[in-house]
Amino acid sequence: MSQDPWLQNYDATCRLAQEIAENIHERNRQQRTGGNPAKINMTLRASLQKLKQNIAQLKEGVLRASSSRRIMQSEADRRQNLIDDLLTREKQLNASFKGDITEPEPSRSTLMAEGGSRGAANPWLINETDETKGLSFGEIKQQQQRIIDAQDAGLDALAAVISRQKIMGQDIGNELDEQNEIIDDLAHLVDKTDDRIRNETRRVKLVETKSASCGMLVVIVLLLIAIVVIAVWPV
User: Fold this and answer.
1) Phi, psi of 90 (to 5 degrees)
2) d(CA 75, CA 10)
3) Nearest residue to 121 (alpha-carbon basis) of 4, 2, 10, 22
4) Which DSSP category does 116 fall into?
5) Angle of helix 5-32 relative to helix 137-232, nearest 10 degrees?
6) Nearest residue to 79 (alpha-carbon basis) of 113, 47, 55
7) Can you give the pTM of this predicted structure?
8) For the chain, where are the alpha helices, taking DSSP H only?
9) CA distance 103 to 95
10) Of these four, 54, 147, 152, 214, which has the most CB atoms within 10 Å of its CB?
11) Which residue in 59, 50, 68, 70 sits closest to 4, CA to CA?
């Protein structure tokens, strides 16, 4: 598993700062012994400029990773603390280079304290959290990878839940469409039934009218028959 590029750049920047400290110590030694430190001063100026650029890149990397949520906020804060330590170290190295303060001899044992299997620890690492205290960068990387894997698993579970919810929503939408079709069919049947009722009502009224007319005709015929019978009946 490859190491996080930001942590690789941070390790390289720490090594560069340590190298600058060693070169300043060597420059001061040459000055004390009457040597010519011109060449090493040129190297120191270039190295200090490179250190400044590396710190700026580290700061930009933290801002980019934090804004895109590639790292947790706690990790972003931890990395910002590391950058602040580097900025303080850069100021000390610049002051020492200009002769404002005396730079003590750097201790290589600090860099090698963790041993080869665990990697070199940063000699200026302060304000660490209890979770990362005593860990090498490789172990911190593994810890962060486990956190990222857990986050990925949580995101996968959330995506599965959202997928199920989406399928349920689609099924509900399809069922609603079917219910709307049934309601439309019922409304159509109700309209047809209402038309048939109106038609039958008109027919009943017509039959009632015809029945009344026939009754009147029967009465008139009976009256005529009665009149004829009375007229021809012998007195």
Assistant:
1) -65, -45
2) 14
3) 10
4) T
5) 160
6) 55
7) 0.43
8) 5-32, 38-67, 73-98, 108-111, 137-232
9) 9
10) 54
11) 70
